[in-house]
User: Which sequence fits this backbone?
């Protein structure tokens, strides 16, 4: 069974050498990487791949990095995805314009790869804490992704690997309704074929595990939509 997929980073850079350097370093850090060399391709891949973070070059042919950033941040369903802008220009005016586009961070070329990775992890820690080995809590449930352990009301619970990935996904955004397709992507991986009914089976197992010592059912079924925590 596929492990919970690694965070996917969309790299938008028109210089092939820079693209390859970023790809090499990101893959070495364990990230999935998708490459785009211009704005049109970036917007297409953004919709297809639904990356967890975008590394976006400022100066691109045709559609500029600024415009891509604006379009992504204008979409309520997508604006939470972090964007780190890469620019060769460090003038103050650029920083002001960046704030208007809604980019989450900004790095001036040439940048330190170590610093870039640190900034990237900071953004992902905010949006995908479980992938960064963070400890998460919701109500009386604690999930420790580094140690792969779950507790409820202080008692250790036994969860299978799929149920653990399901819970960690739901705990990243309590209250958010995840569709079955989104859960398939996140829990099983993009390249694995699984019937959506399989999700219902695993959600049932997760509920049973969470309620084994009593307590209410924290996983809510949203008819016609999917599942949410709380």
Assistant:
């Amino acid at each position: 069974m596929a492990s919970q997929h690694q965070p996917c980073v969309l790299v938008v850079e028109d210089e092939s050498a820079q693209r390859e350097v970023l790809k090499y370093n990101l893959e070495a850090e364990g990230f999935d990487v998708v490459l785009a060399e211009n704005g049109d391709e970036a917007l297409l891949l953004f919709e297809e791949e639904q990356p967890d973070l975008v590394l976006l070059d400022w100066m691109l042919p045709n559609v500029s990095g600024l415009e891509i950033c604006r379009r992504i941040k204008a979409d309520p369903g997508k604006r939470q995805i972090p964007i780190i802008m890469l620019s060769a220009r460090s003038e103050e005016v650029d920083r002001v314009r960046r704030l208007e586009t809604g980019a989450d961070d900004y790095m001036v070329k040439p940048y330190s790869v170590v610093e870039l990775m640190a900034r990237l992890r900071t953004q992902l820690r905010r949006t995908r804490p479980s992938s960064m080995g963070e400890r998460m809590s919701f109500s009386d449930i604690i999930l420790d992704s580094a140690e792969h352990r779950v507790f409820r009301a202080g008692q250790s619970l036994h969860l299978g690997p799929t149920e653990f990935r399901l819970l960690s996904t739901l705990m990243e955004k309590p209250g958010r309704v995840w569709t079955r397709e989104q859960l398939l992507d996140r829990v099983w991986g993009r390249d694995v074929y699984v019937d959506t009914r399989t999700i219902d089976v695993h959600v049932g197992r997760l509920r049973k595990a969470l309620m084994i010592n009593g307590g209410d059912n924290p996983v809510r079924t949203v008819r016609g939509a999917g599942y949410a925590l709380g």
User: Anything to note?
Assistant: The first helix runs from residue 16 to 28.
